Amino acid sequence: MEEKADIGFIGLGVMGRNLVLNMNDHGIRVAVYNRTVERVDEFIRGEAAGTKVVGVHTIPELIRSLKPPRRVMLMVKAGSPVKQTVEELLPHLAKDDIIIDGGNSNYQDSMQMAEYLESKGLRYVGCGVSGGEEGARRGPSIMPGGSPSAWPHLKEIFQTIAAKVGDNIPCCDWVGENGAGHFVKMVHNGIEYGDMQLICEAYDLMKSLLGMSPKEMSETFGSWNQGRLNSYLIEITRDILAYEDEDSSPLVENILDSAGQKGTGKWTAGAALDLGIPLTLIGEAVFARFLSALKEERQAASRELPGPAVDFSAGRQAFVDDIQQALYAAKIISYTQGYMMMRAASAAYSWSLNYGSIALMWRGGCIIRAAFLEKIKEAYDQDPGLSNLLLAPYFKGQILAAQSSWRRVVSRAAAMGIPLPAMSSALTFFDGYRRERLPANLLQAQRDYFGAHTYERLDRPRGQFFHTNWTGRGGEVASGSYNA
Length: 484
Fold this sequence. Notes:
single chain, alpha/beta, 8% strand, two-stranded antiparallel ribbon, 484 residues
């Protein structure tokens, strides 16, 4: 009798194939199925040749090949393909079997799927996986959440194949109930949008304001990667700027400036609106991609809407140092806002998120992996109840030390007409967060004037609401909602 497989895989795209090979490398027996069955045969004859990976041609055959409780991991497109595949699986599964969605599903879909499958006696895990092709093959960051009773049956597999940091610590741990895993992955992707946009703005400043060549910029990013900005994204930026096209020109300068996206950044911004979190930097990073896509309109506008002449006569190296400081300060804001999102979601959905553990999960394997994340883990180790990263001693010290440089960079860019949507919105958030009093008192008066929405008073206890008859004609009837 043939040995049963430890886990089944549905979906043999780039991520699926590499995760399967990663598992096989670690002695985990995997059975694989793909809707286009020819891909199964190609995989078994090709990349998986000589391994213990088992190829099957039908879902019933896949389920029969697995040890109980059956663990089936889906690596298919989010949305209806996930739901369709789950429905095809259901007739063949038994009580306590586990379905794992390893794709980029929306966390709200994961919440619904967890409830649906648990109502049928099954277990569900929504599992964020980050690291791209290389990470999947050599060790990704894995963020599982869903039915808690499923974790003991997956822990050894996932932590074995995950990236390792420090003293062989896996970049994988249980995140929380129902949609928590995919929510944390969504926030990861939102922060990734922010990090990438900030780096692009630093590049634009060095190119458009300072007139630096790609080679000079590559050397600068390489230098930054040796210090506190050490990260995967800084590292690949260094490499990209040094890469030459076939004619020995810098390849990056021959690439069309119109960015694409897969939608997780939009999800993050939308979730922030739902949760009432000022996710300004990541929102601007998403909108910057939208603006970049208006290539033809921008070309026309560039001929009709001239800006100021770009002129930089100050010390170039000093300003490069300012850019580094501004980049680091804005990066702190990006992660601060991401962690504010997770804190709000934890309260809204009754998740017990371990913020330090999440930072550790992102420390290796994933796209936003960076030395910086160790500082976040330390902050939450020192104060698990930390309300905001900006109040942690390390980040408070760093951002206060950087703010003069940050302000110089943003003001100089504004004067020269160079857009810094992420870097400048981060500074605006910082200034808003540190202000004891904002002009929202006038805003509340306006709302009460035209809609009788009421307001609270500084000289009365919180929770008492007032309405003023501003014109003498509207009466004393107040709206039933306040919604701060």
